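Project channel, design review

CF: Before we commit to the Fervidobacterium thailandense constructs, I'd like one complete example in the thread so the newer folks can see what an input/output pair looks like. Taking ABC transporter ATP-binding protein.
RD: sounds good, go ahead.
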Amino acid sequence: MKKIESQVNVTKVEVIDFSARVRGNYLFERISTVFESGNITLLYGPRGSGKSAFLRSFAKLNEEIYPEITYSGSILFDGKDLQSFKEQELRQLVTYLDTNYLESMDYLTLREIIHLVFGKSFKFSVEEYASTLDEFGVLKALYKFEKTPLSSLYVLEKIGLLLFISSLKLSSLLIFDCILDHLDDEHVEKVTNMLKNMAKSGKIIVISTRTLTRFLALADVLIVMNSGRFIYSGRPDEFILEGSV
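CF: and here is what came back for ABC transporter ATP-binding protein:
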């Protein structure tokens, strides 16, 4: 099966005293943490806590929303500063997905989303990737093969397709920003198993959520964020023992 090779393979992402401001107002401030390959980090916080702005920073996406944003501190990919990466290289290294992707998929076919992500020169066929598509629970939904309109897919199948594309890119850091909150309860376990398998392959996975208890069992590391600050960072079981859930 053909895959798109990442230019670099990162095993550790360090965040050091990292802050972001827009016109003097903090989106988040003085954040320090470490994400490591093979681990799944769950970032929990209410709406407006700053978690999306923080996560978009890893792919330099905040600039599209806040042209005047300024940063202090640093993000290091295996010791190399985020700012030293070319944008194309960074977008290959980091996959960031939020709920907007679920909505925009409705206007695309399978072939169109593959071309959008990898370019029109990338040769793709459902037959060639059938076994992997089946592993991600998508194959049976592709009734028109590459011409299948993605509006016909259920939420679980859309998320499965996004996970498939993420695996195809071979990104080192996968960020799922509240996108899994759209899953029905009966589908959480299936997606959880997919993510665990991706983590075992060496991915760094970060999941943000506004519904803590649904995904707590999935996490190796739990971070709780509020008002632009981390108020807890550590093992999920210790958070439970503190009586915070």
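RD: helpful, thanks. The longest helix spans residues 185-200.
CF: Residues 25 and 69 are 10 Å apart (CA to CA).
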